[in-house]
Amino acid sequence: MSELTAEQLIQSPGDWQRSHHCAQTDLALLGQDVCLMGWVQYRRDHGGLIFIDLRDREGLTQVVFSPDHNLQAHQEAHVLRPEYVLAVKGTVRERPEGMRNPNLKTGQIEVVVKDWKLLNTAKTPPFPIEDRIDVSDHLRLKYRYLDLRRKGMTRNLRLRHEAVQSVRNFLNAEGFLEVETPVLTKSTPEGARDFLVPSRQHPGHFFALPQSPQLFKQLLMLGGQEKYYQIVRCFRDEDLRADRQPEFTQIDLEMAFVQEEQVMRLAEDMIKNVIADTVNQELNTPFPRMSYSQALDTYGLDRPDTRFGLLLHDVTDIVKDSAFKLFASAEMVKAIRVAQGGHISRREIDDLTEYVKIFGARGLAWIKIKEDQWHSPIAKFLGEEEKQQLVRELGLEAGDIVFFQAGGADMVRTTLGNLRLKLAEKLDLIPEDRLDPVWITDFPLFEWDQEEKRWAACHHPFTSPRDDDRDLLESAPERARARAYDLVLNGCEIGGGSIRIHTPELQSRMFQALGISREEAESKFGFLIEALKYGSPPHGGIAFGLDRLLMILGRTDSIREVIAFPKTQKGTCLLTDAPTPVPSKQLAELGLRVRDEQPR
RNA sequence: GGAGCUGUAGUUAAGUUGGUUAUAACGCCGGCCUGUCACGCCGGAGGCCGCCGGUUCGAGUCCGGUCAGCUCCGCCA
Q1: Is A57 left (phi over 0), alpha (psi -120 to 50) or beta?
Q2: What is the pLDDT of residues A107-138, one digit of tens each?
Q3: Angstrom distance (rounded) from CA A401 to CA A592
Q4: What is the separation, in whole angstroms, between the first and last Cα of chain A?
């Protein structure tokens, strides 16, 4: 028997056809001949007997090369290495007593090789194709195609597929039409930074990639399509986070002739359905609702995680005459009681103090409640009356610890809102298997843009004010409420929408309130205002961040885990090396020149 | 634009107060092995300690810078 190298053994599959997937081989197939194709997961070469765990997308099957069944095959199979690609034909047989593997779905059986083909060899992968190995993000992204072979990524891609199918099935049944909208579109003011695409045919002119299909979906309502949806890529040229990628996917939908209730009911039914179809969990509808101001008051954030307590209490009034000047002079003082948190050490408090500084806090006041006294750097400033009121407001008991934050309202809320999350994580208070949705409603229409010194749309400039707040647009914009709603799941904003403005008059007033001049409104949004003049139906909708929803359902802490080919935090692709410079000829065609081009 | 963490063999990590030849496990290569299943046993190879500079008799270790990955602030209607 001549010794052939692995490369010499490579063959084409020829007329071999795969009969089963590796996960399908079980006792029901006993005695049958099957043809499997896949990759070598593990090889256990005993010399006289070779076991290969063959992997395909669906699972693993043990195949056995035995000289008793095919001498040549057995001898050739010594060349097999991890990730080699092979096809085997063989017989499914029950494993001998005591040789079964209960950890493997197909562990009752094995496939005895009658004939096989080596379809391809493989370099030794830079990291093992196994879930239990933690590999650096850098390597995983550079060799993403190898990372995708791992079970975790395969599972996440399947989850994504199932979620998308569920959404389509649901919305199709509800009478929605899936319509595509342009990816090459118009740059608009407001919102995130646009990705620009230069126009070759019109030098100096640019398309923008859509931040969302917002205007087109409204135009589809104007186009009489009544119920639209799209699972659509959106682009925002802003810095990345664990839950943010420059391109991400929205489940976008819009309905004509509806009010808030219909959109919210439909949306929660859709989400309920997706969750049942993917992770087999049942949510109760209707989802709970909370006003924006209540969310800020009790959770500090507009995306409350309602899976645990640690609520914020306002104690501004209690300490307004305190001897502790920091409290007395503050615009707002809030507190979090951690029941039986007195064991938190000085060292841990120091870490938390460092943590809150990220949010602009100067420090972190705390009190440990003991049986006989209050242990705290600030206890000496607090009078009996103040202490009594704090006990009442916070429900204090011996063994508790209380954290305080005093200062500007925004800072206090943000700081304690984030501290609350930090504490919950640290103290393991988050029930990981819970899915707690909550609608946030009653958003303000505007928020003050400190940098631009003007009002900015809280949601977007097409969101309708409440009917009875219309006159506030000019007189008291800060009091105007929006017909907007966000859906928050486990403290993550997974969707948001609104009832839109559908008359040209109101839309023009909105632009005015935002400080957008008549001329600018005309040049940027003229087509919309014009369109609204031709019988626009009242309409509204919502858009969900598919990736974020999948992060929660897949119980992963990074958006990269649910995207096949994500970008790094610096917005690059380690696999393709994009973005790259382009030849000057290509730039010239576009009428572009790169300023201060560095020699490379 | 800013802050923090990380960077040592193919991979994951250890590396003490700055001190001789930089460890371990897995992987890889060679050999043995007919019931393993993350097979086992014997042997072997494998290092620009991210990069540049500085301090020092001497730097993986200290300092400055820089690059990359990650987390966060700003930003994200």
Answers
A1: alpha
A2: 999 999 999 999 999 999 999 999 888 899 99
A3: 61
A4: 55
The count of residues in chain A is 600
Q: What string of DSSP letters covers A110-175?
A: EEEEEEEEEEE--PPPSS-S-TTS---HHHHHHTHHHHTTSHHHHHHHHHHHHHHHHHHHHHHHTT
CA of A450, C1' of B74: distance in angstroms: 13
From CA A343, how far away is CA A383, in angstroms rounded?
A: 25
> What is the ipTM metric for this complex?
0.94
Collapse the DSSP code of A421 into the 3-class scheme (helix H, G, I; strand E, B; otherwise coil) and give the result: helix
A353 CA vs B1 C1’ separation (Å): 24
The answer to whether A280 CB sits below 7 Å from nucleic acid chain B is no
**φ, ψ at A73 (rounded to 5°):** -60, -45
Peptide bond into A286 cis (omega under 30): yes
Q: Rounded to an integer, what distance in angstroms lies between the CA atom of residue A325 and that of residue A406?
A: 10
pLDDT in tens, A411-448: 999 999 999 999 999 999 999 999 999 999 999 999 98
Closest nucleotide over all strands to A79 (CA to C1'): B29
List protein-proximal bases of chain B (any atom < 7 A from a CB): 1, 10-13, 26-29, 32-40, 68-77
- Average pLDDT across each block of 10 residues of chain A; the chain has 600 residues. List them in order: 80 97 93 97 96 96 96 96 97 94 95 97 95 91 97 97 98 98 91 95 96 96 98 97 97 98 98 98 97 97 97 96 93 96 92 93 95 91 93 96 96 97 95 96 92 88 96 93 97 97 96 91 93 97 98 96 97 95 94 69
Helix or strand or coil: residue A180? coil
- The reply to whether A119 Cβ lies less than 7 angstroms from strand B is no
Q: Which two tokens stand for residue A490?
A: 């486990």
Handedness of CA A148, A561, A151, A488 (dihedral sign): negative
Phi/psi of residue A238, nearest 5 degrees: -125, 170
Whether CB of A236 is under 7 Å from strand B: the answer is yes
A295-322: buried (b, 16+ CB within 10 Å) or exposed (e) per residue? bbbbbbbbbbbbbbebbbbbbbebbeeb
The rounded distance, in Å, linking the Cα atoms of A568 and A142 is 10
Contact A188, A218 (CB under 8 A): no
Residue with tokens 């090789």: A113
